[in-house]
Fold these 2 entries.
Entry 1:
Amino acid sequence: MTDSKLIEGNREFVKDISTELDAKMTILTVKGQSPKTLFIGCCDSRVAPNIITNTHIGDLFISRTIGNFVSPYDPDASYPASASAVEYAVSALNVETIVVCGHTHCGAIAGLFGLDTLDDREFSNTKKWLSLGTKAKDEVLKLITKDTSEREKLEMTEKLSAVYQLDNLLTYPAVKKRVEEGTLTLNAWHYNIDTGIVSRYDSKTKEFVI
Ligand SMILES: [Zn+2]
């Protein structure tokens, strides 16, 4: 498939812009964006942030990374794409909420359990990036029993990893400061791509709840 289908889709989109959306787009152009949420989701094509949250243009500042991982704060990183999205959202846009959204059937999480099968040269960056999920994987390996199914193991890792990414977010001085001030909240979600339902992590019960 070339990009022609996508361009066709864009023309359909332009044709169908409603008066209400047109007005909203004009306001966003004139006043600039002011999203309240930074949504950090997986690159997976099935996890479309605006669609699954029924939100629109201008509502979410979105960073999509493999496995919805967040790199810890590192002022010396060479090309810190996900880190700059966090910094811009928190310090320039002043978002009030950050959501890290894991999901079922995540290829990145499954990949954590099969790193040896990935070619060292073709996946050199991917392997390095996936190391951000190692802590969750190791923790889950300690928790599972012989009765734990493969699906359960992966889902436990998807959820635990999303929670651990919140710890990575707290390594950013600006994030830590805003959280301590009470002007920023951090949330871990798990999106079930079979049902479309999101569950949220409750830090008191340490469970994901719908
Ligand atoms: Zn994924």
Entry 2:
Amino acid sequence: MAKPTYRVTVAATERRTPNLRRVHLEGPDLARFPDGFEGGYVKLLLRPDGSAAPGPEGAKRRSYTVRALDREAQRLSLDFAAHGLAGPGTRWGAAAEVGDVITVVGPGAVKGLDPASTWVLLAGDLTALPALSVQLERLPPDATGHAVIAVPSGDDRVLPELPAGVEVSWVVGAAPQALVERVRAVPWRAGTVGVWSASEFEVMRALRSYFRDERGVSKDAMYISSYWKRDATDEQHKAAKKADPTA
Ligand SMILES: Cc1cc2nc3c(=O)[nH]c(=O)nc-3n(C[C@H](O)[C@H](O)[C@H](O)COP(=O)(O)OP(=O)(O)OC[C@H]3O[C@@H](n4cnc5c(N)ncnc54)[C@H](O)[C@@H]3O)c2cc1C
């Protein structure tokens, strides 16, 4: 069944960090938006030039995390990462101005951390920071573990308040694969781990192989996803995901 669509208007924009721009979307359609999807995602309907598409027919779809939903204000907030090779999604996020109208589709759910785990290990890049932040916000105060996060610059290091037992390692301004090295360097703890990770496609494959094949983490204890693919549009990225023989 086709996912519901919501016609929304840009109500405000906010520069969170040098490379992360928050766009607040509002509109009466959001009265129908279901509760509990923070950390899940919506798809923006776009034209190839980065302008809003009039409807689903022939539109490019780009996924963005539901960073926050304010039910009373009927406000949906998304964070857009900037990167050099802007496709339609990045372009729209960078240029959005108050009053712009766009259609979003969804929401889709993203799996959270396994609540039965003894400790947590989260890893992600700037595109994953919105979703990873929601996961961190949901941790109980006595949670323990690590978060390894890759960002383009030191000023992009923004996180919600963390449980005291969760340590954060930042990988600043490095190539995507540096995230893998830093995750591998996290001391492995006793007990069961809950893994949450989202990143570039090849980075995801390397992390999945590390967790699954080297550390024996079971499927149920792990959310591991790729949010984009180097040198590939999102359409090509999706095709690569489908064809991935190691999945
Ligand atoms: C479930 C989910 C949630 C997501 N949440 C967010 C979010 O909250 N915020 C966010 O910013 N992104 C998020 N993403 C990632 C975002 O959908 C992709 O980065 C998407 O490719 C951007 O579309 P585009 O039109 O700008 O570029 P595309 O047309 O897909 O690609 C154009 C070029 O840009 C390159 N490219 C795409 N993304 C990046 C990147 N991050 N860094 C460097 N180069 C890149 C591609 O390799 C390609 O060469 C999410 C993805 C998924 C699957």
